[in-house]
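Lecture notes, unit on protein representations.

Consider one protein chain, 142 amino acids long.
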Amino acid sequence: GVNTAMASGAQNIGFAIPVNRAKRAIGSVERTGRITAPYLGIRYLMVTEDLAKQQDLPVAYGALIRGSEEGPGVVPGSPAEKASLLAEDIILEMGGERLDPEHPLWVAIQRYAPGETVRLTVRRGGQTLTFSVTLAERPEQP
């Protein structure tokens, strides 16, 4: 990893950026002149057993697409909308990796670069569906 901070007064605890993340950032700068991040374009909740029971969900893992006061579950014009994802869909897997609180969606997304296409396994109603989504570059926040 790349060391980023060290607290010498606290038993020399150190913090580091994982080397694979640093390599992606360097590659991004080499290709585009700046650091870019992948973007799916959803708001979601990671499904836990408690949430599944409370909401009567069909599965106890995954990422539940759900809007909030900050905006809709699927951002208009986003890769998620272009792939036909809908609010209340539950993304079960990304690129074959099962999503759960120990393996959250945001971590899975970071394994890809903008422009890469990834397969999503999604639970919609009583069906399990597969979607291909091409990730975009995360837009700058205003």
